[in-house]
Amino acid sequence: MLLDDTFVTATYTTPLASSWVTPPDGIKLERRTRLAAADVAASDLALRPSSELLLLQRTHIAIPDVAVIADNVGAVALRAPVRPDEIQATPVRLLDASGFAELLARATLQSFYGIAPTAWVRDDEAPEAARARAVIVAGAEALREPEGGCSEDLVRAWFILSARSAVSHLLLAPRDMRAHQLREGVAALDAARGAGLARRREWRPALAEREGVTHERANAFWAAQRLALEDADRQSLVDLLRRGVQGASALAMSNVEFRDGA
User: What is the block-wise mean pLDDT of the chain (262 residues), using blocks of 10 residues?
Assistant: First the structure.
């Protein structure tokens, strides 16, 4: 089982890293801070950014029992040297931003802020990177106070624009995974989630301090976080995927499928 190990998923990953819970025999848990969709094998159960459902939809299906949802405060931010309403068009620099962060940016920059992206740039050496007046950051970096300019929470922007929460992570299961294997995997993550919530006062302040996130900002972020999909979140996910793939030729949207009863 592969887990995206980030500030956002820490309620799942911290108990595993701290050995507060032990996975059952036969389940190998691997936490990684950098993992591409191409690294997820067809047989892997994986907690991944929701955007990767677009890339893995032929081999994997979404499991609603394990997820990360941000209600109106999130860890994706637009950084700009001036107020967003002073920018008409610009290249957009994706600074170590996840696919989910890119989805949010594509869904909100023009629709909410009126900024027309002229290019989407991941390569720091690309000429457009130096000209970008809009920079997208994610994770703990998005929650830190910027050194200058403006910072806008794109999860909040999405919430205002759509009246919906943002699903940042999903448990993706192989379509042919046997029911008992899936139940064991979900149970292991459920145990980790339970331990993370029960012992949150032990690890959350320390993590926030280590990552340079203020106590107030970290508390607001975690207070707005939920860890399993509700019915309304499914439609929110579909809406974000549809809006977020606009202009992204590498991504294609098909029906989003869920496997219930894990």
Answer: 93 94 81 77 90 89 96 96 96 92 95 96 89 96 94 97 96 94 93 97 97 96 96 93 71 71 64
Q: Which of 229, 173, 177 is nearest to 57 (CA)?
A: 173
Indicate the CATH number of 76-162 among 3.40.50, 3.40.190, 2.60.40, 1.10.3470.
Answer: 3.40.190
Do 3 and 35 contact (CB within 8 A), yes or no? no
Using CA atoms, how far residue 35 sits from 30, 174, 178, 243, in Å, is 11, 17, 25, 24
Using CA atoms, how far apart are residues 237 and 51, in angstroms rounded to an integer? 9
Assign a CATH topology to domain 2-70+166-244.
D-Maltodextrin-Binding Protein; domain 2 (3.40.190)
Q: Residue 161, SS3?
A: helix
Q: Which region holds residue 169: left if phi is over 0, alpha if psi is between -120 and 50, else beta?
A: beta
CA distance 158 to 140: 19
